[in-house]
Amino acid sequence: MAVTQDSYTGNGSRTSYPFTFPYLKASDVKASIDAVDTTAFTLTNATTLQFNTAPANGAKIKIFRETGIDSLSATFYAGSAIKSEDLNDNFTQNLYVTQEVNGRYISALGGTMTGNLNFGEDVDIVFEGATDDANETTITVADPTADRTITFPDTTGTVVTTGDTGTVTSTMIADGTVTSTDIADGTIVNADINASAAIDGTKISPNFGSQNIQTTGTINNVTTTELAILDDATVTTSELNILDGVTATTAEINILDGVTATTGEINKLDGVTADTTELNILDGVTATTAEINKLDGVTADTTELNLLDGVTASTAEINFVDGVSSSIQPQLDGKQPLDSELTELGTMGSGTASALADLTQAEVETLDGLTASTTELNLLDGKSIVTTIGGSATDVQIPSAQAVNERIVEVVTEVGGFVPIPNENNFPDANPDINDGAGTIVSIKALAANLTANGSGVATIANGNVSSNATITINGLTASSTLNAGLGVLVETTSTLHTYVFHRVVVDSTGVSNAQTLVNDFNDRYQISASAPSTHPDGSALGDGDLWFDTSTNIMKVYDLGNTQYDAVTSVGDFKLLTVVPDGATSGSPTFNGSIVSYDLRDDTVAANVTSVGQLIVSLNGVIQKPNSGSYNASNEGFYLEGANGIKFCTAPASGSSLFVTLIGAATSIGTPSDNTVTEAKLTSDAVSEAKLKVSNSPVNGYFLSAQSGNTGGLTWAQVDLTALSASNLTSGTVPDARFPATLPAASAANLTSIPAANITGTLPAIDGSNLTGLQAGATGGNSGGNAVFWENEQIVTHDYAISSGKNAGSFGPITINSGVTVTVASGRTWTIV
After folding, report:
1. Inter-residue contact 385 to 398 (CB < 8 Å)
2. What is the DSSP string of 266-298?
3. 625: which residues sit within 8 A by CB, 6+ positions away?
4. Can you give the C-alpha Rg of the chain in angstroms?
């Protein structure tokens, strides 16, 4: 079946989608998003559609062809030529419309509807059913007062209507969906409640209140005996609340049993975090409160405190030995050999020493065994580790490995993926799983053979997939073009497996080198300056065609090597209406008073820069003025060019004059025609002078032009050779009577032939038959089948014996007809034989 549409699913960011169907006009390409037609798109090329805004993630995208049917592509008129191209366009239009209808109509045999099905006013859907009878099921709708949507559930079953009273079962009601408002009041009885239902007392109305609870079991695992303990209790609610949240066991609470400590004494323990073992250390301590207070804030452990036995130092002094676990003096003696290192530390700057002082023990231990030099460590100075790489990344940020990996994945995803293959015979088995399989770049390193597209720009590669030997299709190429072997080519995947869209040809190193050479050459041959360059930028000599943009006049000029000068470059047909301003001014209206002869010309806001007086068409009061070259002469008529942007009239324009000036581009001349291009029709009757003809000698009166033979050819002036003239050179009617003398010389009758009878005057002498020649024997009774001589219409004529109907009747002289000869007379003719 012909392809008339392509479908995609949006991802929220992608805007460009290729399509694979042909079409006649760009307006025939349509698109819809979630079944809603849209025109918010453009065609970036012949086979790619780009939405103005990326369709949402999950949106159903359809690109389809809808060929116009309002009119035929071509119309034929009586007597006009019928072109095959027009016939093909009309047939193609009908073919496309037929394909679209065939792919979208619903057949009586069944089919699939992929678009919206909209019904008009008062339309029903009628189902006949399995039996063709008078009973049908009709689906209809009430007249909608607003947009309504009816959604069928995603499950198998029967749709229940209000007229069905026996189909709804408990399986059709979702758990937890029946509320108290759905149950009629007073309809629940004791039998409706399960015997094992555990109903909270607060759910019963009236609640328990002061009522006695009759039970043989327990309440929340509390026995009747335990509850009885509370009987007659005088404890208040506030006192009971003190126990709220207590997690101590009965054994732990019993520890307080028999305690005689006062509340004040017990409060001293408030906030103490020491465990029992730590508190037991104080057992038997005879130290006074003041002595114990000296330990306030000490962080030393028991072993460290044992070293202080008998010490009278203050708390601050004691804190100095925090962490000391042995005799101090041996440790100090052991540090003495490191005096040079301490001296080295003593030379540190305050900033360095302060930085070291701020280091923690863990940070110092991290540096232990470090082999990096200061220079290497300084490379990290000011640097920070970042876990993401975004548009705000800076040079002082060091990305983590995860950040680098995520960024690579992100970039590859943004370009739609990239799959390299060595040649066109190694396309992947399946589309890469990026962008729904479409838009991924497949890079062909080098074509193994020429790749040629057909007239529709489509190329196919047999066995382009090694594993399955599938045929590869590449769309979007230039019609009938060929990509040569060895070229690198990029193509884009589509949603159709083994079908790709041409992206571009990859420029190889040779192409880049050639392009660089061309750029460098252009840089040498094109210069911009206020004065004419005398050499190339690299010092080499100028050549024909070198370009120079004159910034002083804003004119592009080209170098003429033969004349060693720059000439202005102008466009063919460059006609401009110039503005006329007072002489020496750049703006303003000109004054015409009968005495001013000079005026300046402006091309918009810049000087006109006229290179030749012949470029100007000057209309003064509707009269075209004569252009004059050379030096100004007031006695002439017309005008002269004054500088590059002014004109000067020979006679000052009168007051109230109107002046219009048109500038003709310098390149509007015809130029030199190509060889053998001027036809005879382009020449007037007197357009070619003798000097332009290829004549080998000078003209002489009375001579004529004669063609020359040999290699030189051409023409030459030659004299008529009368000596070779003879009667054989003369044709009938070429010699007028005036060319004959009054008396002709004697002429032999033998030389006179075919003289008409009308030219013979006077009385002829008797003619003896023996003097007549050329007569056949039949004239005197010759053999059968011969001719006879008759006198007819005052002329001697020859007739067959069978006298035809084309001859006039008349009398003939005596003839002899031999025996056996038959004379026939045509019907309607009368002949008398004497």
Report:
1. yes
2. HHTTTT----HHHHHTTTT----HHHHHTTTT-
3. 618, 619, 637, 638, 639, 649
4. 61
User: Which run of H or E residues covers position 197?
Assistant: none
Residues of 24-44 as b/e, b for ≥16 C-beta within 10 angstroms?
eeeebbbbbbeeeeeeebeee
Map 677-736 to HEC letters: CCCHHHCCCCCCCHHHCCECCCCCCCCEEEECCCCCCCEEEECCCHHHCCHHHCCCCCCC
Gap between the Cα atoms of 806 and 826, Å rounded: 9
Strands 659-664 and 704-707: unpaired
**DSSP strand pairing (384-386 vs 397-399):** parallel
Distance in angstroms (rounded) separating the CA atoms of residues 481 and 652 = 65
Environment class of 634 (CB within 10 Å of its CB; exposed 0-12, middle 13-18, buried 19+): exposed
Read off the tokens for 266: 């017990």
Helix, strand or coil for residue 813?
Answer: coil
Q: Is 478 helix (H, G, I), strand (E, B) or coil?
A: coil
Question: pLDDT tens digit string along 381-433?
Answer: 778 888 888 767 787 788 888 878 777 766 665 555 678 888 888 888 887 76
Interatomic CA distance for residues 263 and 270, integer angstroms: 11
Give whole-number Cα distances, 1 to 404, 479, 819, in Å. 48, 24, 94
H or E element in which residue 408 lies: helix 401-414
- Cα 320 versus chain centre, distance: 79
Region 774-785: what's the mean pLDDT?
41
Instruction: Yes or no: say if 615 and 632 are a contact pair by the CB < 8 Å rule.
Output: no
CA distances from 66 to 37, 71, 269, 494 (A): 12, 14, 91, 22
Lowest mean pLDDT among 188-192, 308-312, 513-517, 666-670: 666-670
Q: Please report the pLDDT score of residue 784 as a whole number.
A: 39
Residue 512 contacts residue 490 (beta carbons within 8 Å): no
Sequence-separated (6 or more) residues with CB below 8 Å from residue 801: 778, 784, 785, 786, 788, 817, 821, 822, 823, 824
pLDDT of residue 780: 37
127 sits in which H/E element = strand 125-127
pTM of the model: 0.26
Task: Show Cβ contacts of residue 250 under 8 Å, excluding neighbours closer than 6 positions.
Answer: none
Lowest-pLDDT choice from 56-65, 101-110, 347-356, 551-560: 347-356
Q: Using alpha carbons, select from 454, 406, 450, 415 the residue that is nearest to residue 435.
A: 415
Does 581 score more than 80 pLDDT? yes
Structure tokens, 289: 């409160």
Cβ atoms within 10 Å, residue 649: 22
CA atoms within 13 A on the CB side of 597: 15
547 strand-pairing partners: 526, 558
